[in-house]
Amino acid sequence: MADEPDLPADLALRIRGLGKSYRINDAWLPGISIKDDITRLLTLRWLWARSGKRQFQALDSVDLDVRPGEVLGLVGGNGAGKSTLLKLLCRISPPSAGSIRYRGRVAAVLEVGTGFHPDLSGRENIYLNGAILGLRRTEINARFSDIVAFAEIGEFLDEPVKHYSSGMYVRLAFAIAAHLDPDILVIDEVLAVGDERFRAKCLAHVRERFRDRAVILVSHDVESLRSVCTRAVLLDHGRIVFDGAVAEAIARYRAAQG
Fold first, then answer.
1. What residues have CB less than 8 Å from 166, skipping those under 6 apart?
2. What is the average per-residue pLDDT within 230-256?
3. Residue 224 reports pLDDT greater than 60
4. What sign for the dihedral angle of Cα 29, 30, 34, 36?
5. Which regions of the chain does DSSP assign to beta strands (E)?
6. CB 22 within 8 A of CB 55
């Protein structure tokens, strides 16, 4: 992904006026998983029933800057717009309004299985993901052993990933994203699938390896956010209602949840 010529040199990411709306017919378009389809459909139908409108604004006029070295936590209740924002950042879904400008490559760990070809082996998916990020085979080869060691999938490396457990999916997905040297790493709630030891290992890796890069993390585990994030944004009904200290964002989120 090429650098944006008008992006200030001290920024990894700039978002301006970002919006995402869904029409009623969009509720029937496929998402990236069955869970995604069901959650979106139920959320949209409930909101439409309350408002009497035929359109749902998932994100509304979001402005956000992220600098290299920042670990930004996204906080908010279900339906706040966190996952929608991540999908726009990763170009899984196009925005309805506004702009996103990046510096460098973006790698993501989103829904379990996203970005993997189910019929390819773990080994083949490592090379596939590297190619998607624009890396040459020699560059992937140089990182391959570190990816495999971190993922801890051992004898299953050459098995089709459709036979992997959700935990194995997450271990491999994180290992690929975190070792292919992206400039911006995006992590959704998927780390909750892994065990506590592996989650701690991932967070330690983020702190160590991404000191001079940008990380955007969504998690309902507030202790994970406290331990790794340098800043947090609180989303509510598609809008940013707070941007600043992690502790205050968590306190406001908890207060809003009652």
1. 112, 193
2. 95
3. yes
4. negative
5. 13-23, 55-66, 71-75, 97-102, 106-109, 184-187, 214-218, 231-236, 239-244
6. yes
Nearest to 173 by CA among 197, 159, 193: 193
Q: Determine the 3-state secondary structure of 121 from DSSP.
A: strand
What is the rounded average pLDDT of the residues 42-58? 62
- Measuring CA to CA, which residue among 62, 115, 113, 107 is closest to residue 84? 62
Element (H, E) at 221: none
Contact at 8 Å (CB) between 117 and 125?
yes
Residue 59 and residue 84 in contact, taking contact as beta carbons nearer than 8 Å: yes
pLDDT confidence of residue 200: 84
* CA–CA dist 111, 103 (Å, integer): 24
- Residue ranges covered by each domain of the chain: 13-257
d(CA 117, CA 122): 9
Q: How far, in Å, CA of 111 to CA of 102, rounded?
A: 22
Of residues 126 and 31, more confidently modeled: 126
Quote the tokens at residue 103.
């510096």
H-run or E-run covering 211: none
Asked: is 13-257 a CATH 3.40.50.1220 domain? The reply is no
User: Which amino acid is located at 130 in the chain?
Assistant: G
Count how many residues are written for the chain.
258
Which residue, 90, 74, 103, is CA-closest to 189? 74
| Spatial CB neighbours of 191, under 8 Å, sequence gap ≥ 6 | 109, 170, 174, 199, 202, 203, 219, 221, 224
Tokens of 83: 């996952």
